[in-house]
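Q: How would the structure tokens look for this protein?
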Amino acid sequence: MTQVNKTPITVAYGDGIGPDIMHASLDVLQAAGAALDIETIQIGEAVYRRGLTAGIEPAAWDSLRRTKVFYKAPITTPQGGGFKSLNVTVRKALGLYANVRPCAAYAPFVATRHPKMDVVIVRENEEDLYAGIEHRQTDEVYQCLKLVSRPGCERIVRYAFEYARAHGRKKVTGFTKDNIMKLTDGLFHKVFQEVAAEYPDIENEHWIVDIGAAKLADSPEQFDVIVMPNLYGDILSDVAAQIAGSVGLAGSANIGEHVSMFEAIHGSAPRLAGQDAANPSGLLLAGVMMLNHIGQAEVAERVHNAWLATLEDGVHTKDIWREGTSRERVGTQAFAAAVIERLGQEPQQLAPVRYGADRPFAPPVSKPRPAARKETVGVDLFVEWRGAPEDLAQTLKAIEQGPLGLKMITNRGVKVWPDGLPETFCTDHWRCRFMNGGGPVPLTEIAALSARAAEAGVAFIKTEHLCTFDGEPGFSLGQGQ
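A: Here is the predicted structure in token form.
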């Protein structure tokens, strides 16, 4: 008898419906011949309640480092109490930079208005507003920092093109909002264009995210692979999964250089916990992605085709049950048993999957670039102030000294001095821009300006240095600049 080398994986059964759908999914994978050496860890609500705000114990990190593969059921994050999102913690701590979510229609067996839909959304997973850096800056104003890096953009965009090439996809589309966020989303768009030029065999296009989202919702068959920054990708991958048929059918992969995580995209649905009522399909299809990732493509193909055959035969859980199409309404374990019964079969109407032809690819590496020449040319002084902008300007003009002069005051990004409009609504949060007439500004001048502001009783919140990079402004210019 041939000895099969088992691949170590870390498994977490999660909360709510997590144990139900994980048991069902593992039953199918193992019945199909998956060679898995399973380490089980506890995560989620019970760990949070023990006082660990990240929802994961130190020993669990050791397991993930050993196996490098995480098969995870959904968890429940308690409300309040400073608890952190476990998904965000794991993704950022382990560098799981690419979130991959296939969203395909299974018409006519699962209801959808878009029977030809077959889209893969590749979402940047670590940066953007999900950096989680937030502050309450004044009595009235809160901020969340949107952080976007060139290496982060290049890695996710290159991953999307490599994924398309490996899986026989023909087009990659980028979504950004760089008509408004010209630096952050502008960088993502710029990198998208640079990387796309290296893949002449793959068509590329770019859409502003709002009209792109409208087109995705209306005509998803126009898209193939879509790559997006974190927030847009999070929202639109759920939208895409739902219009394809059901969020409950969607699995996802979180790919990193060292560790990768595979999970359903839906939540833990505590109300259904222990009722044998949940659809395990999302987690099962995440398991299919995991099998491909660890080199067990033949088993992945067997599972996926058996799952498609089960859908075709009308064996459906409550969430996708439809009179006239469905034939047998089943619970979680019975659905898994139906898939196991069909192992070795292929669908007759839906297209069977073929994973052996996929070309594996290594996670992309950002290309080194020479550092730009950086010069500091001014500073934005953020101030808490209750009063008229003209009075604030007068106070700040009084502390001008040396090369830095007050050029502009904005409130929530709208210029209110000089030449502001009386109709503009203002909060207690002001951005006051000081610039040099020409040439760089020593950091000592910025420190001296801050000191003079403090001495004058100006409640400044923070400063942001205004820099040029190879002569190009590295800051939004604002109105009148």
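The CA atoms of residues 151 and 367 lie 8 Å apart.

The radius of gyration is 26 Å.

Upvote if useful.
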